[in-house]
Every structure is written in structure tokens, then in C-alpha cells.
Amino acid sequence: MSVNLNEINEELEEDTQHGKFLTFAIGHEYFGIEIQYVKEIIGIQPVIEVPEVPNYVKGIINLRGSIIPVIDVRLKFKKEFLEYNDRTCIIVIEIKNILIGLIVDQVAEVLKIADENIVSPPDFKTGFHQKYIKGLGKVGNEVKLLLDCEMILDEDEVEQMENGKLKTFNF
Amino acid sequence: MDEGNSFFTNEPMLEMYIFETSNLIEQLEEILMKVEESERLSEDEINEIFRIMHTIKGSSAMMMISNITKLAHSMEDLFYYVRENKNLEADVSKLSSKTLESLDFIKAEISKIKDGIMADGDENELVEDIKEYLGLISGDKSIEIKREPNNKKQRYYISPGSTIKEETMRKFIVKVTFEKDCQMENIRAYTVIHNLKDSCKELFHLPKDLIEDANCTNYIVLNGFVIYITTPKTKEEIKELIEMEVFVKTIDIEAVEEFDENILEVQEENKKVDVRIYVPETAVQEKEITAPSMKQNIISVNVNRLDKLMDMVGEIVITESMVIKNKDLEGLSLDSFNKAAIQLRKLTDELQDIVMAIRMVPISLVFTKMHRVVRDMSKKLGKEVELEIIGEETEVDKNIIDNISDPIMHLIRNCMDHGIEENDERVDKGKQRKGRVMLEAKNTSGEVVIKVIDDGKGLDKQKILSKARKNGILTKDESDMTEREIFGLIFVPGFSTKEEVTEFSGRGVGMDVVKKNIEKVGGSVFIESVFDIGTTINIKIPLTLAIVDGMEVSVGSSVYTIPIMSIKESFKMKREELIIDTSGNEMVMVRGNCYPIMRLHELFKVETKNTNIEDGIIVMVEAGDRIICLYADALLGEQQVVVKPLPPYLSRYITKECGIAGCTILGDGNISLILDTAGIINGVI
Predict the structure, then answer these.
(1) Predicted pLDDT at B93
(2) Do A50 and B646 touch (CB under 8 A)?
(3) pLDDT at B354 over 50
(4) Is the peptide bond before B645 cis (omega within 30 degrees of 0)?
(5) Percent residues over pLDDT 90 in chain B
(6) Starting at the edge strand that comes first in sequence, how are the strands of the sheet with B660-665 ordered?
(7) Which B residues 630-669 touch A at CB under 8 Å?
């Protein structure tokens, strides 16, 4: 088989996106997610509630015809619920072909953080959302918590979904 | 075997391979069924079987699936012998049995490959078996099939239209070598062939496969390119034609009387140009298994793309109403806008119809498979049964077809095993010796009705009732039960009237699974039966799953869609009609029957101010034979909606039991959840 051009393209794209993070705020803390996962940012819009889901899954929204679930990151990180306002945003991320919306207090900026300025989180077991943190990025005097997108979904959850998808694959 | 590697690098090719091979197997099965029925093998059929086996062999070899290749090869040998020895007195049913056995093996291997497992089945036993059989019919144990060139008529002509007279024909063997390092020898060889073919009557070449075989380039570089031609042209003229290709180094033309035997294999390879595209079988082409003229008109499309197209069209319809009913337009006089809007609506409606039609496939895909089931069953059970198929051209959505194949197969097995009596018993009863099973499909207003009819012994009501009593699945007083309800007991889990478990049916699972599968696609099933006359199993399924007629109801700020199909009626209720039992369950009495009430806002934990039973609306819904009343705030109206599945992320929280079947986007862009009435009812009752 010949070399897949798309793959090369993707690699190149990944390269230019490497080290860039979209930062957003939850309360006073700033978080960053790798830009390669971010599909788009939209303002808060009416969310349709669905029954039988954990409280951090707020429901579903209609994003130009595709129906995507939205998660309140505040609630996911077990913080208090904050009324949505005009600064509240939904960051739509794509992980392994699954689209998900993250509701955050506000979106800050896109930052370039060099690899050497990223340190691993300290190995302590008390941090309540520690398992979602991939590293700490130093930007000037500030520190941004870099999220591990795949962990937001919980690793096994992503797998579960992929399996589910395979099963329904119609030949 | 290193197919492990090739699987993952060649996925699209593999997909194509599986698709093609499955289709070929289906075709072949169908031919064999016909052969068994008529108990003779026509020349066309032999050729067809040979061709199919050959194609399977070729493509399996290409995918490096060696066991299928070997088996197909030995089958090919067998049918080659049969084809060449027309006067052969062979037992047709034995021949087809052998072929079916091999087919089953190939099928099993293909499904392994589909699941991503290596095709590791052992083909040797079958191959030996076939060889032995071949030895038997040919009367020579050590037969090595030598393929003699067959008579001229059957030769494959690349240029069929040629009117050149036989007498002036000369035969040449031409050997061409190309300049060293000229690259792409195979393409150059192809050009040579292209230049030659118009002036030749026959043309074969070595290596045979110039385009797909990667090794052919090396072969040409090492051995040169050999062409066998029959042509009226002279040596010089041939040379001229070949020299049109620039990189030709040497041309060696040798005149001969007759060609070597082994070029026949070349011919065979050339025949491969044949059929590739799947042609759906319809009643019209029953006699013709392949109709070459139709082939270019049909393409196979990935179902996922169709789903996407369907989604897009759904979006367009919604967006259209968003534009046309836009609030900004209110109060304006819009004569020409409205005209254009009507035009647009007409077009989008048409577009929607066409897209729906694309997804429709004839039900014959399922029905024709049943011939095989009936055949296997009647051999194993020793009952002679004839299958009749009516209305196989009825079209149903692809998704539904995929889901009803198993239930129908199960029903057929059931009625052959339990329904149809032993042949002798039938004669005693004054029935025809041969049992009859009829499979019928027809279209009725938005639904497809499929009937499985047998002329067997029918259902015994008393037996069913006593069995149900024994298993404790009776929910009603026996004397109150209608005939249909009694027969319906068969579908209750854990019910089986057959005492012994056979290979095919009687395990006590089955009928309830049949019912579940049919309900999954929004269908229903009921039985009619007359003792000693026969049984009819009626299956009703919707034409499509993708679009549902829905009733929108509001609960608090949410909107839910209830499929109209399941709504019996809706009404306002008075306070005094409300009955509350000791555990607080609410009920309502309608025309002498009592139904439970389920408040949607409680079920989905939605906040609403509307909790007074008199303010809201009661919607009576039905699933299967059970009825429940749903309480909602208000009816919003009727709408056709495009069903979308819930996002995969949510599907692990929301299962069917929650009462949500999917969601849809309404005309105003809002999302509405579609209720699954069966799920709600199962949760409540």
C-alpha cells in the first residue's frame, strides 16, 4: 500500500498545533486543553435535559444539526454550580471521533507553552480532580492546569463507546 | 499465511472482498437451490458456478486467504470436469450438497474475517473430500485435471465484433522485450495489447494479469512478454503495430499452427472481466442469474454515506421551515417569496422521497436466503417441504432488512419443525404429502406485512393453555382470553410447546426473541391458526425507521415526541375520574377498563407547574397489547420527525428501558426526545 497522504497531513497539522493550549477559567483556576482537540467555541445555548444521567451531564444541544452531549466542567470537578451568564461558553472538543461540549465559566486565550515549561503534576493522592490533569504549564508567573482531554471522558468510557460503535458497524 | 498483516493494511480492499464474496456466495446458493429443485444442472448453471468459484478463488488469492483459495480451487476443478464432460451421469443432489458444504465453510471463514479474526479453518478435509468425489465421478482415482482447450465456440474473444474470415487466419506467438529500465513494463505491455487487439481475432497473453498482479512487471523484465494472437495480418503488420509502443526492444514473431494447451488458463483469467457489480434479484430476472446489460446501472454504496445523506436532507427540511416561517417575515406582504417557498417545499419533499427510496431494498434479499434454510431443514428432519415466496419485490428500509432476517429464519424453522407434520401423517390426514410453507410480503399504508404461512397441524389452544399454566405465565383468567391472546402466549419468554429440544428449535428461547427483534424495529407480530389446517404468523413492520410521525407534547420546558403509531387516543380528564390505589398509583377508568397513569414529569424528573390532573392532557399509548396513559402538560401538534440516535456518550446512561428511543430536531431548531412507549410500559407494568 502506498503511503497515506492524509496521515502526513495530519502529522504536519499536529506539529503546528503542538504546544498550543486553549485556556479557560473555572472560578479562579485556569485550565488549558490542547488545541488539537478543540473543534469550536460557542456561547451558551439552551440545553435539552435528558433523564437518567449524572448531574454533570447537562443534556444535549443542537450544533448545526448534530446532536452533542454537554458536560458542565464545574460539576464534573465537583465544584458548585454557577448560574450561566453571557460569559459562559461551550467548548466543543472532539476525542476519538466523539464530539462533546464542555461548559466553562469563560474562555481566556490560546497560549503557546513550550515543552520545557510543562511539569508533571506532583504525585499526591488527595487532589480531587488530579486524574484529569496531565501537567502544569508555567506562563510568566501564572500556572495553568493542563487537562487530559481523554481522561475527561474517563479512559474506559472512551473505549466503551468505541466498542459500542464497532458493534453497530453495518457491513 | 500472513493475512494477519494484510487485513489491516488493506481495509477498503478487504471490505470490498468480503462484500463481493458474500454476494457471490448468495448468488451461488440461489443457483444451487434452483438446481436442487429442478434436479438438473444446465450448462449455463455449470458455467455460472464455475465462474463464481473462479472469482472467489482469484480474489481470495489476492487477499492471501489461502484456505478459501484452495477450497475454491478444488471446487473449480470439480466443475471444470463437469463442464467438460457433458454426458457425465452425476448425482445432481450430491454435487450440490458438496458445493453447499464448501460454501458453508467459505461463509464461516468470511464471517471470521469480518470479525477481524484470521481465517484459520482447516480446508483439507473438504478439499480431500472433493478430490475423492471428483475421482469417483471421473472413474479415475488419481485424476489430475488437465484443462484441454475447449472447442472454438467457447473461446473468449477480446474483439467479438470482428468479421474477419477464418481462412486467412494466421496464428503467431509474439515475444516482446522492453528497453532495460524503461519502468512500468506492465503498462507498456498493456499498450501493446491495446494496439493489437483491434486487428486480432483472438488474443491471449502471458503474464495474464497486467494490472492487478504486482509481480507481472518482474516477470516481463525477466522473461519478456508473450502474446498469442490469431490474426489476418502479416508478420510485418504485426511488428508495425507493436512498434507503436516506444520502449520496445526486440520483437520475436513466430508463426504456429496451433497454440499450446496452457494458454487456456490465460483465457480463463480473461473471463474475469465479467460481472462485478451486485444486481439485486427480482422476480423478473428469475431465470437469468446475471443480466449483463443491467450491470452498469447499479452501484454499491456504503450505508453510512446514505445515512449521512438522509441526515442532511432531514436538516434541509428543518432549515427550510426555519427560513420560511422566520419571525422576521411576519406582517410583510411576500407574494413572490411565498411562491418561491412553495416551489422549494415541493423540491425538498421530492428530495426526501428520493433519498428514502435509495435506502429501500427489496425484501427478496431476506426471502431468497430462506430457500437454503428450508432445504437444510427438510433434509435433516426428513420432511418434504416446499417453500413458496410471494411479493419478494416489496421494498423495505435497509436497517429493517438487517433486523428481520433472523426472526423470519427462526419462524420458518419453527413451522417446519413444529408445524408441518411428518409426510406420512399428512397423507393420513388427507393433505398433500409435501408440506407447504409460504412467505408473503406486501405493502399496506406505510407498513409492510410479512406472513409466514404453513399448512401444518396448527396450534392447539388447550395444549398452549396447559403449558402456560404449568409454567406460570398466565396473567389472565383462561376463559377471558381471546384466541389471539392465547396464541400470543407463545411469545412469552420461557414458553416452548415442543417437548424435546432439537437442533433447530425448541430451546424455549426463540419465539420471545423473535418478538423482541421485531419490536426493536417498531413492528408487531401476531398469530392466526386453525387446528389441523395451518398457522399464519403475521409480522407488521414500518417501512422505515428514519422518519416517524410524531405527536409533540410539552412537559415543563421540554418537548417530547410520541410516535403516532402507538397513540390510541388523547383526552382531558376530570378530577373525579382519577383513582388512586393504596400505594399511591394513579389510574383512570375508560369505557369500563382501568389503565395506569404515568406522569411524564415524574418519569423524567422535569420541573413543571402543571401538576393538576385536570390541567394537562392524557395520552393513551399502546405497545404490544399493553396500554398505559401518559400525562403531559399539553399537546403541541403533529409533526414528521427524523429520528436521530442519542450521542454515543449518553447511551451508557440512557438505555431503552428509560423510555427514550432517540431524539430529533424540531422545526425551530430545538431538540425533542422521542419516547419509547414499549420501554415506558415495561418500566411501569
Answers:
(1) 77
(2) yes
(3) yes
(4) no
(5) 5
(6) B634-642, B547-555, B558-563, B671-675, B660-665
(7) 644, 646-654, 658-660, 663, 665, 669
What's the rounded Cα separation, in Å, for the pair B298 and B295? 6
What are chain B's domains?
A: 3-138 (1.20.120.160), 152-271 (3.30.70.1110), 303-361 (1.10.287), 363-542 (3.30.565.10), 547-684 (2.40.50.180)
Integer angstrom CA distances of residue B669 from A99, B330, B340? 19, 18, 22
Say whether B646 and A60 touch across the interface (CB within 8 A): yes
pTM of structure: 0.50
Measured between alpha carbons, how far is B630 from B595 in angstroms, rounded to an integer?
A: 10
Is A68 an interface residue toward B (CB < 8 Å)?
yes
Give the nearest partner residue to B652 out of A68, A99, A160, using CB atoms: A160
The separation between CA B158 and the C-alpha centre of its own chain, rounded to angstroms, equals 35
- Beta strand pairing call for A66-72 and A98-104: parallel
- Tell whether the model's pLDDT for residue B565 goes beyond 50: yes
**Which superfamily does CATH assign the domain made up of A5-168 to?**
CheA-289, Domain 4 (2.40.50.180)
- Check B650 against A50: CB less than 8 A apart: yes
Residue B314: partners with Cβ closer than 8 Å, 6 or more residues away: A65, B352, B546, B547, B642, B665
* ipTM for this prediction: 0.73
> B341 — contact with chain A (CB < 8 Å)?
no
Neighbours of B287 (CB within 10 A): 8
What is the least distance, in Å, from the CA of B623 to any CA of chain A? Answer: 21
Residues of A in contact with B15 (CB under 8 A): 171
Q: Which three cell numbers stand for residue B42?
A: 444446465
Distance between CA atoms of residues B109 and B90, nearest Å: 29
Per-residue model confidence (pLDDT) at position B554: 92
